[in-house]
Amino acid sequence: GAGVSQTPSNKVTEKGKYVELRCDPISGHTALYWYRQSLGQGPEFLIYFQGTGAADDSGLPNDRFFAVRPEGSVSTLKIQRTERGDSAVYLCASSLGNYNSPLHFGNGTRLTVT
Amino acid sequence: AQTVTQSQPEMSVQEAETVTLSCTYDTSESNYYLFWYKQPPSRQMILVIRQEAYKQQNATENRFSVNFQKAAKSFSLKISDSQLGDTAMYFCALGSEKLVFGKGMKLTVNP
What we know:
Chain A is mainly β. Chain A is built from no helices and eleven strands. In chain A, the strands form two sheets. In chain A, strands 2, 4, 5, 6, 9, 10 and 11 form a seven-stranded mixed β-sheet that branches. Chain B is mostly beta strands. The interface between A and B is medium-sized, with 28 and 22 residues.
């Protein structure tokens, strides 16, 4: 079946601009996660949704970052006033939402802020 | 705070040989999962194997097995009969919903 889909695959934007990154989880997966992977590093947790609500947003670095999942399926990560330090690969994952359910990752969006 | 350390940044191995990737971690949780993920150039994180901390038996998945030493907080991955397709970044991770990842290790399998 279809896996986790992230669009766009690559995004180049200018410093100060607003960007939206989209994630389509696997059908039926109630949990959705966003991670950020900087060059040469492992992924870092940003936010986790269970259904429509953010169950844990402790990883969002500051108030320029915001994520929504209004219907409990597709999620959008929004970054305002982008900075060069926001350049990274943004990974989305989904799972069935049970304690032992494995995460299924998408191919990520590579964001470059010039 | 939970931490994951992968001290080997890079390794190479000949095809068909066995290689072991090391990982140490720290957590105050009593039950948790440990994972090894593979990340090829496509960027997708692919789950290789996972281990639940309360299970003493080491997990195995075909050519992949782990050596889980709970007291030492060590979780190494052994890849047997290495294949060219195993070439990738490998990440060790700890947690359940909110995973903490190590910095990764680049594995190259040479023909």
